[in-house]
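Two quick folds needed for the group meeting slides. Do the first one here.
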Amino acid sequence: MSSHRQVWDINLGLFALAEGKANTFFDFFAYIYARQEQFYNASFMHKTHKDLRYLILQFAEQHAKVDPVKFFNRMDDDDIYGQARMPIRYAATRSVWATPTVFINNATDVPVDHNLRSKYSV
């Protein structure tokens, strides 16, 4: 997901909503991932950054009934910036070019492909 312009703000929204809770992060990630056609490159080509932020807020409100002001403030917080930056930096150092890409114990030769989804669907 790191190769399109929407990913950074989506990442901020994930961390802002999760507040350090892994299960909350992954639940919200699955929720957003299931709706990626709404923010993927072609469908978002003529939309603005503000449009994206409001779409992320809409997802957060539907998923977790967030307070809009608090949510946007959290997305803009330096702490969230630091948390959100780490996975993207890690992905860049590992030459991630497609999603999802799976690393288990930092191994790069993990036998996971699209067929795994049907076996372990989210």
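Then this one, please, same format:
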Amino acid sequence: MGKGISKCITLTSFNLDLGYNSIDENGAKYLGEGISKCVILTSFNLDLRYSSIGENGAKYLGEGISKCFTLSSFNLDLRFGSIGENGAKYLGEGISKCVTLASFNLDLGYNSIGENGAKYLGEGISKCVTFTSFNLDLSGNSIGVNGKRILK
């Protein structure tokens, strides 16, 4: 899948629903590598809910997303992806490079990112200052009072 995506270098809109599949960290690696070649993407929509990509999978996706400098619309569903604190950090780092984002939707429900993961994610998102639409779901992540305060 990722190798096929990497050949679509003129792709501007990416929409892929792989939710409820057994996409693991290797699958996420290939997707991240493929996405990284699509440097003129403006719209990104990826559903990997219930795929247990883990923190390394989140790292690969974050690295791929970080190459998409022209994104204006971002939608990523990683509910129950087991990304943890470091996975949130990697995603935050990738998102921080997408400074032209207008529409942002990220669902990280039930990923055990904790307070530090919320901090890292917040730091990355804070680099994106052109939002007109923003939705972030961190339900079931035990981010605590400090995590909520950091995200405000």
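Slide caption for protein two: Strands lie at 13-17, 43-47, 73-77, 103-107, 133-137.
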